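In this supplementary section we document a worked example of the pipeline. Step one takes a protein sequence of length 183 as its only input; no multiple sequence alignment statistics are reported here. Step two produces a three-dimensional model, which step three serialises into structure tokens for compact storage. The input and output of this example are shown verbatim.
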Amino acid sequence: MKTAEQKTDVHEVEVEVLRADRQQPGVSGKTRTTNDIDAVIGLVARIMDSIFRVPGTKFRFGMNPIIGFIPVIGDQIDAVISASVLLRSVKHRLPKIVLARMGLNVLLNALFQGIPVIGDSITLVFKANQQNYGLLQKYAGNGKPVTRGDRIFVFGIVGGTIGLAVLLSSVLVYAVFSQFRFW
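The serialised model returned by step three reads:
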């Protein structure tokens, strides 16, 4: 029999229960599910395309159109951010056709941003980064190794996208300044 003077060792244990779609690597031997493929890309996509909500509606928008209103360099900043999402997606071994589609989304976003005011309105609806994150979630993890050809392909898409964004912005700046010379 134990007396009141005898002490028993009591240890406190903290337990955290995670939803099945939020499992962390190493917890109960499970790995991340497809809902959390790349948290960094998901965060960037959310910030750029859907971080704010218009009160009283379900419509969401992000920093993408706001950055687009920065004169001269706003479109390039957005293109670089979108291109970095595409570059980070390469490590997930996506098929080339999916990478091409993601590059096309970035390119279309850059083209839309090149149109003053109207283009920023279009990017409110287009949400290229969200679309690219959706493609990443759908096609990531097929087990195919990344080859040098994959990297060259993506760098070509990214370089072309950034080059086109810079060219469009330069043409826009030239057109605006040439109009002021005649006044």
